[in-house]
Design goal:
With about 120 residues, the chain is mostly helical. It has one domain. Helix content is about 70%, strand content about 0%. It has 3 helices and no strands. The termini are far apart.
């Protein structure tokens, strides 16, 4: 084995190392993009749920959230919507009396529907 053979061997190793590094960086980049997409897709239903809760907190009782996404988030959305419907029924079934309006924290605005 001559000096030229050794030089060629090391040159081939450097070329292979550059190719391997480029492939590794490309695969890592693709995996990161895929993870960002999947996390964003999983986060959207949760974000919508939090927005619905915030609307409800402000007194908008006719709000409903989309029920989509992962099974757990789907179930959470259905439960939230059922809870809001039950609260609406309870509020409308109450009769407003002078005693009820004198209760601390009672808000007559809860009885009106929020604009669509």
């Amino acid at each position: 084995m001559g000096i030229e053979d050794v030089r060629q061997f090391y040159q081939d190793m450097r070329n292979n190392q550059a190719t391997t590094t480029a492939v590794f960086v490309s695969i890592t980049f693709i995996i990161l993009l895929l993870m960002m997409f999947l996390l964003n897709r999983a986060y959207q239903p949760l974000k919508q749920m939090l927005q619905g809760i915030e609307f409800y907190r402000r007194g908008e009782l006719d709000i409903r959230v989309k029920t989509s996404g992962l099974r757990e988030l789907f179930t959470l959305g259905q439960t939230f919507n059922a809870m809001i419907e039950q609260i609406e029924k309870d509020i409308t079934s109450l009769s407003v009396t002078p005693t009820a309006t004198a209760l601390p924290g009672w808000q007559p605005t809860l009885l009106r529907k929020a604009p669509a």
